[in-house]
Amino acid sequence: MLIHSVRTHRSADQLPRTEQLAYKIAQVAVDPVPVPAETEAMVINRMIDNAAVSAAAVLRRPVATARHQALAHRARPGATVFGVDGSYSAEWAAWANGVAVRELDFHDTFLAAEYSHPGDNIPPLVAVAQQLGARGSDLIRGVATAYEIQIDLARGICLHEHKIDHVAHLGPSVAAGLGTMLRLDVDTIYQAIGQALHLTTATRQSRKGSISSWKAFAPAHAAKVAIEAVDRAMRGENSPAPIWEGEDGVIAWLLAGPEHVYQVPLPAPGEPKRAILDSYTKEHSAEYQSQAPIDLARRLRERIGDLDQVASIVLHTSHHTHVVIGTGSGDPQKFDPDASRETLDHSLPYIFAVALQDGTWHHEHSYAPERAHRPDTVELWQKVSTVEDPEWTRRYHSIDPAEKAFGARAEVTLKSGEVITDELAVADAHPLGARPFGREQYVAKFNGLAESVVDAAERRRFLDAVQRVSDLKGGDLGALNVRVRSEALDKAPTIPSGIFR
To answer: Which reaction does it catalyse (predicted)?
Structure first.
């Protein structure tokens, strides 16, 4: 990897295009380096994972809303919308499918200086590949690039510290991935990256306080914007530049300011794109930093025994976990039984209490209103707090995969005064966890989440197609869609008409 120093430059400096981060990313995108076999295998795993969580979310209201919007934009040639037949405009298919992937907070994650859900790159790339008749092998190459860029940006540039939403790294990664997949030239990709970043910076209020359904729409919006940016760049339109380094650019006014220097790693010329292998999926439908605590709670419940005897529970964890999903956020909504599902899946006190009581986690039952209102749950929930532990913060930011950790140490104090402690560094499903996910687990996740809405024959057909995606020819990528039974879709919420009909 090459480490690039990125900082603000005055307009008078006339920073050469080749020295700008957007151009360096574009150079990575055009590098014809082959995709390693293990990278390709993981791309397929994540396509299966996305289909799994989309099936689980297909009847949710935000997903139905996005689907209805997309179905108003028929196009031929076009792309597919998850669950249904037909051909639709690629940017709207990406929109609908992106919301389905993100709605349950149940797909892959990468955490470093910034956090990300790099599986958000897959829906826009698949949609554009379908509309333009790209080959499956080019789709694989594009996804590998998109993962690489989003993860490398997350390693080098923290957004949340400055209250900028993490999808600001997604716009450039989608643009770069599309550039690779479509074999665009470096200058076109450079312009698309600049436009995509310029248009996808927003505050992270979408993940603060009472969290709304926009949490699912935000990455889909960034992906849709990136598709449109690539389209404009292909037609010869330019972007603001230098977009990161400019005197009035992103670093100067949205991030750490003109005196700060960011260190961004990117693959050297000829270096394979392997970043996807450093990301990890979820066994449980909740914010990633609650994955290990859920597994820890399941392990602790037998040692604790009677939960009525718990006086307090303190989770010692990283700064990020404490302030984003813990009591360090200062959000009273994280203790509100009437809070939205989006808020509860970002409430570590709620998640830990329910996992302790149930010994399991379910993407629907664990968030049901009656579950959140159970008196014994509310009582236990109020006893859970988080504190930052510098060692957990250090491990969170470690670049050594063997010590990088997203877990916590639990100190459970009983009414008797006895203290029970245990800790878990990574989730059981993490590559270094007790039960790491491989192809078998991804397939099982898909079948388990899809069986209630997708026929067995359709599940088998999809799994066959996706596992040979690199062999699919142009025009054949419609096989990557999953069709949901019509009687199942009939149970989706009724969506009022809007501007698009």
So the answer is: (2S,3S)-2-methylcitrate = 2-methyl-cis-aconitate + H2O; citrate = D-threo-isocitrate
